[in-house]
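Inputs:
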Amino acid sequence: MAERMQFEYNVDGGNFTRAGFASSEIKKILKKLNVDIGIVKRTVVATYEGEVNIVAHAYSGTIYVDIDTERIRINLKDEGPGIPDIDQAMEEGYSTASSQVREMGFGAGMGLPNMKKNADEMHITSEVDKGTEVEIVMFLNNKE
Amino acid sequence: MTVADVVKVLGLEVFSGADGLDRDVTGGYVSDLLSDVMGNADAGEIWITLQTHKNVMAIASLKDLAAVILVSGHEPDDNTAQQSDEENIPVLGTSKSAFEITGKLYELIK
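Outputs:
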């Protein structure tokens, strides 16, 4: 493969009919690059959860994908309400999702914990009333 | 065992995605929480749920699930059925409850 590949996808806040589109495109790319299937699976889970978080909570966002021979770096950046207490947001079962979102089966407070479980590294920064940035890193050469 | 075998033995309705009936079934997963399925279901499993919206297909596709069974007489939304046809992942239906159909599926593939 090329030494380095970069892609980006826009995500609309509130548009659940398109939720998962970016994750699906990223999955296709990783499979085409013959990335180890276990890494593809973990990347897909983490990316999908991040994509749904943008749809469920933010006004708009962008998913930046940066792949080189060492690692996959995915940066999910949104303009939105931000997260006042990141530790609380990371707790399983804690969610601020609306009742509509919950009726669809989202908003169980499992999204961020699922991301953390599946990513090799995860970093969150957030500013209230501005937005949130979640970066996940998957290492390609140690298949733990 | 294929999805078609499961359809036949359990008497399921095929709403959409009939081109995927030859998919192999390796197990099942029962949940109405999408993150739970995303985090814990495995490729090749049949997902039993009452959720009918299009995001069900996004998850089924991302997780390479074999098929989806909608319980208690639920039917897929139009755009759910459409994506099921595009992805060749069947959406099936039963009038039985999640409890009953899960029991039958478990007996069939355990």
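Remarks. Strands of chain B lie at 13-16, 27-30, 45-49, 67-70, 91-93. The two ends of chain B are 11 Å apart (CA to CA).
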